[in-house]
Amino acid sequence: MTAPDFFPHPEPTQSYWLTHEDDLANHRTTEELPQEADYVVIGSGYAGTTSAYYLLKDEKFRPSTVILEARSACSGATARNGGHLKPDCYLSFWTYAKMFGPRTAAQLINHEIKHLKEIKKLVEEENIDCDFHLTRAIDVFLDERVSVPTIQAYREMVKAGYLDTSDIEFWANPKEAEQVSGMKDALCAFSFTAGHIWPYKFIMHLLRRAVEWGANLQTNTPVTTLSEKPDAEGRWTVTTPRGTIRAKNVVIATNAYTAGIMPEFKDKIVPVRGIAAHIAVPEGQRPPHLNNSYAVRFGPKQYDYMVVRADGSVVVGGAKQKVLLSDSNWENVTDDSKLIEGADEYFDGYMQRHFNGWEDSGATTTKIWTGIMGYSKDFMPFLGRMPGKRGIWLNTGFTGHGMPRILLSSVALAGLMKGEVDDLSHTDIPWPFWATEERIRSTESVVQSYMAGDKHNGEKKN
Ligand SMILES: Cc1cc2nc3c(=O)[nH]c(=O)nc-3n(C[C@H](O)[C@H](O)[C@H](O)COP(=O)(O)OP(=O)(O)OC[C@H]3O[C@@H](n4cnc5c(N)ncnc54)[C@H](O)[C@@H]3O)c2cc1C
C-alpha cells in the first residue's frame, strides 16, 4: 500500500451532484490572498462552510474570515456522497453503548435525530433550493447473519429503555418485509424518519451567504502547511502556493485530509475511499414507484444506501461487497480521480436485481464517482479547541456519516469561537465528539475491525 499524501487529488471524478456547477465553484473574492485574518477556515465542504456560516451569521460580530479550499468549492465528500440524511437510530446503539455507555449512546443517536428538524428549519428559513425531502428510511436485511442478531439487539435496546423508539417500525416477517420495502428476498425491515437532500446545492447556498456576510473565499488554494506554533503576536501562519496568511484563529475542516496539515492526526483520521452512482430509467419512461430511502444489508458490513429522488432516479452508494475485497481499494486512499475496480460494474442492473417491479425498467447507471471520507479511529468527529494550540479549532473526521452530525457541531463550534459558551460541556454536543488530548494521543483504532466485517479475522488483506 502506498502512503497517501493527504491532499485532495487535483482531478477528481465528477459526481452526479456536481453536474450543476454553482457559479461560486471557482470563486476568488479578491485577486490576491489577504495577508491577515481573524479567522481562516480550511475546507469548504459541509463542515467548513457551516462553521463560517454560523461564525458570521450575527451581523453584530463579523470577524474577518478567509475560506481556503484546495480545489473548487465544496468538491470533497460533501459533493460526492449519497445525499442521505439518515440518523442511525438503532443499529449502532450497542456498539456505542459498549464504547461510551448506554446513556451516551442514546445521546449520540438523539443528536443525529435532532438534525432532521434543524436542517429542515434551516432549508425553510433560508429558502434553499436543494431538493430537501423528509421521508422514511427503510433498512432491509437480506442475510440471516445480520438479520437475526439485529432483531435481537433491537429488541434488547427497546427493553433497555434508553431511547424513545416510537418513530421506528419493524417487520420481522420476511413476507411483510418484502411487501413493505419492495425488495426481493427481504428477511426483515426497519423504518424510521429520515431525509435526503442535494448536498452540494445545500452547502453552496450557505457558502454564498457566508461570502455575502464578508467571508473571503479563495478556491483552488491548497494549504500546504500550518505553522507548528503561533508567532509572538499569537498568529498562526497558513501557507499556500499563492502566499501566506497570518491568522488569529484557524478552523480545520479538512476531513479526510486533516493529517496533511496537522500530522498529529495521522492514523487518527484515516482517508477511506467510497463509491456511489446515479441510476435512472431511459428518458421519457416512467420509473416504478418507490418513495422511501434505503439501506440494504447483504452481510456483515456489506451494505448499500440509496435515496430516491423526486424524479424517480436513485443515488446509491456503498458496494461494500466489492470495495472490501481488498484494503487497497479503500484504506488510506485519497485518490478520488479513479473508480474502484469491481465496484464500478456493481451498480449495473442494480435496481432490476433487487427491487420488485424494476425488472423491465431499463434502468442504467448514468454517473459513477468516488469520494474520500475521513474515518476517525473511534468513529467520532474531533470537535472544538485543539488541545495545546490556542486559536486552532477542529471540526473534522465525520467518518462517512456527516449529514446528521455536522450542522449542530458547527453551531456549537461557532458558539465557542464567539465566546458564547466557554466549553463544549456546556452544549448538547455528546462528549465522544470533544477533541480531548487523550483522544488525540490514543493509538487504539476500531476502523479496520469495523470495516472488515467477517472478511478476515484481524489479518490485513492487501
Ligand atoms: C461516496 C460517499 C458517500 C457518502 N454518503 C453519505 C451519506 O449518504 N450520508 C452521510 O451522512 N454521509 C455520507 N458520506 C459522508 C459525508 O459526505 C461526509 O461525512 C461529509 O460530507 C464531510 O464533510 P466535510 O466538510 O467534513 O468534508 P469534505 O466535504 O470532504 O470537505 C473537506 C474540504 O476540505 C478541503 N481540503 C482538504 N485539505 C485541504 C487543504 N490542505 N487545503 C485546502 N482545502 C483542503 C477538501 O478539498 C474538501 O473540499 C459519504 C461520503 C462519500 C465519499
UniProtKB/TrEMBL annotation:
Gene Ontology cellular component list: cytoplasm
SUPFAM superfamilies, per database record: FAD/NAD(P)-binding domain
Signal peptide positions on this chain: none
Source organism, top-level taxon: Eukaryota
FAD dependent oxidoreductase domain ranges (all copies): 38-403
Protein name: FAD dependent oxidoreductase
Lineage: Eukaryota, Fungi, Dikarya, Ascomycota, Pezizomycotina
